[in-house]
């Protein structure tokens, strides 16, 4: 039975352990608190603009193994995107992939950030300081096709992101490619741009990490989620060993 701690901003699944693996998935939920109205169609909350499809299920499966724990965001990225810095307008987006989010216009941004963004990052800081993992896996997923870029192809099975420290990315790329996967190097996003977690929590402290994006059509069902959870347990353990 997995241990779970839940707050409005985040969930902690599993038991964090010194020298273990910590999975961080800040876009793991599409939950919208009852007192917040985003003003968008309910069906959009199941799409990539609202949640990183598949990452919560992968993280929870990984946490079934001793020594692995996860910090999961507990609200939709449309409510508060904790993968953005507090001064980034996209931390509380007014548009996403061409969709207007009218409920985020004219709100008290500082109150929203204080309610969701700050507690999530405070919890991550505490986990990293109190039970330092051997490896932090920052886990995201990406849509095969953006609505605003219909002609853009995204052929990668997964992508590695990094800023300055590319150790985890290089090791993982080799391991994924040995399994026949197509790996994007800073694709479809760049860790030099989307680096709120990297800069604040890992690279600034010299902590080993792997920042990974998985294509959502590969992990939208239980079979894909189970396959990637098993793969990531193997890859993360090997990355941790080689970086140490």
From TrEMBL:
Cited Pfam families: FGase (PF05013)
Gene source species: Novosphingobium decolorationis
Protein name stated in the entry: N-formylglutamate amidohydrolase
SUPFAM superfamilies for the chain: Zn-dependent exopeptidases
UniProt-listed InterPro entries: N-FG_amidohydro, UCP029730
